[in-house]
Design brief:
Elements: H1 9-54, H2 58-73, E1 77-82, E2 95-97, H3 102-110, H4 124-137, E3 141-150, E4 153-163, H5 171-217, E5 228-235, E6 243-249, H6 256-260, E7 264-271, H7 275-293, H8 299-317, E8 321-329, E9 334-340, E10 346-349, E11 354-357, E12 376-379, E13 385-389, H9 391-394, H10 406-418, H11 423-438, E14 449-456
Antiparallel strand pairs: 1-2, 1-4, 3-4, 5-14, 6-7, 7-8, 8-9, 9-12, 10-11, 10-13, 13-14
Helix pairs in contact: 1-2, 1-5, 2-5, 5-7, 7-8, 10-11
């Protein structure tokens, strides 16, 4: 029998309280559940951030991305399509979870001819093409996508997918997915930078070895030659340069004492270009020239023969060489010279207190097979100064863009020679003025700069070691 007796106020209040408690508990459980989910998601993102800071293998890092997306969003799978640094599809780094889904889609991506082209990922139409390809493959699934961008460049595309009846793609899901995409972009960008640095380090090691070898080929000190002082310096624009100077006795069978009073060859040259190629050619020419010097031929014949020997190698390298060759007899103080289109050395006469250029006609080494060279000569007098130099000196740009030029070099040479400075002092002063003009503290020049100073001793002055 149905009880129709009225509910007491106490029973009514108890009923309301019970319903309220149940709702409160459900709300508390929901809040707790959401809090736990947030903690889990935060931990996942923190783990990815830690991996980004500490990873050394990009492939292993990228393998984490699909797994992280599925966990953050709670979907069946995820797909990562990265681009290489040149914008082409990075087929070797395609990643998908679950793995059972990837074979057919990966085959389509590998066969995508457009994806092999440089700059593929930088065009919006190609991104849309990828989206259509992925959507068609997952025709029975919901798919959302986002771009992987770093420093304004497309670095790839990230997808999440699940069954049609699974609802996802909320703002929270998309934000989580974008965070993962952004961290992925940073990882790819960092790896590209790391590869560039590593390649530069390899090149630097090779250049350092080349520079060490080249520094051993240039004279580490000037020889002692009766009646004159010598000072020289080569300052390459890079670690390895194309400038070259040398001092060579014309006879190798003499003792050191005998060499000091014998004939010597002085040479300065410049291989067109900078860096390793120019340095290698300079090294080759040094060996050829040293062999030619021992023949005892006059300077014009030396340059003629050197041109014949080096022509084929220089033609293949598309480079030429300027070279000034001279030989000096300490007994007579006669200097003979020939010039292959190099900057003519400057001769300061102690008697006339004036400067002239030492020049003779001649073409670049490596320009023509039958090039002919003229030969000049001069008798140096006590106190005379010769300055051999390369165009890296006169072509050096100042802060205002103006060149150091030959006139400025002549002015300073005249000043320091008139002051009666020694060869080493003149050389140091000239480089000081050049550095001051260029305005650099680390002595970095745009082109290799070399200078050799020869000063004839006054009659009462003994030879100095420089």
């Amino acid at each position: 029998m149905k009880d129709n007796s009225p509910i007491s106020d106490q029973q009514y209040l108890h009923s309301i309280y019970s319903s309220s408690s149940a709702a409160s508990k459900s709300l508390t459980d929901l809040i707790h559940s959401l809090s736990q989910e947030q903690i889990i998601n935060q931990d996942l993102l923190l783990s990815l951030s830690f991996a980004l800071r500490s990873f050394t293998n990009l492939q292993r890092f990228l393998e984490l991305i699909p797994l992280l997306v599925t966990e953050l969003i709670g979907v069946k799978g995820a797909l990562l399509i990265p681009f290489q640094d040149d914008g082409s599809l990075w087929r070797e780094q395609l990643k998908m979870l679950p793995n059972s889904e990837d074979q057919e889609l990966f085959r389509k991506l590998f066969l995508l001819e457009e994806g092999k082209k440089i700059g593929f990922g930088m065009q919006e139409k190609n991104i849309a093409m990828l989206d259509r390809l992925v959507t068609r493959h997952f025709y029975s699934s919901n798919v959302i996508a986002t771009s992987i961008v770093s420093r304004g460049r497309q670095r790839g595309r990230l997808y999440a997918f699940d069954k049609k009846d699974i609802v996802f793609g909320s703002n929270i899901h998309r934000k989580h997915m974008q965070i993962v995409a952004d961290l992925t972009g940073v990882a790819i960008e960092n790896d590209a930078i790391f590869q560039v640095i590593r390649n530069h380090e390899k090149v630097d090691r090779q250049i350092s070895i080349g520079a060490e070898i080249q520094s051993q080929l240039l004279p580490d000190q000037c020889p002692i030659i009766e009646g004159i002082q010598l000072a020289a310096c080569c300052r390459p624009a890079f670690q390895v340069g194309g400038d070259y100077y040398d001092f060579m006795p014309t006879r190798s069978d003499l003792t050191d004492i005998a060499k000091s009073s014998g004939r010597w060859a002085f040479v300065i040259g410049d291989v067109m270009g900078k860096g390793v190629p120019a340095g290698l050619l300079m090294t080759m020419l040094r060996g050829m020239l040293r062999a030619e010097v021992l023949t005892g031929l006059p300077p014009d014949s030396i340059l003629h023969d050197l041109n014949q020997l080096a022509l084929e190698d220089l033609t293949q390298s598309h480079r030429f060489v300027t070279l000034f060759y001279s030989d000096f007899d300490p007994q007579s103080r006669k200097l003979r010279f020939a010039n292959a289109a190099h900057n003519p050395p400057l001769h300061w006469s102690a008697k006339s207190k004036s400067i002239n250029r030492l020049d003779a006609h001649g073409l670049l080494i490596g320009l023509q097979p039958e090039a002919e060279y003229g030969c000049g000569e001069i008798f140096l007098q006590p106190g005379d100064v010769l300055l051999y130099y390369t165009d890296g000196v006169t072509e050096a740009p100042g802060i205002s863009g103006e060149r150091f030029d030959e006139n400025r070099l002549i002015t300073f040479l005249d000043k320091f020679a008139t002051e009666g400075l020694g060869a080493k002092q003149i050389l140091n002063k000239l480089f000081e003025r050049l550095d001051g003009f260029v305005g650099v503290s680390d002595h970095h020049l745009e082109d290799d700069a070399s200078m050799v100073v020869l000063k004839v001793n006054e009659e009462s002055t003994l030879p100095e070691l420089t």
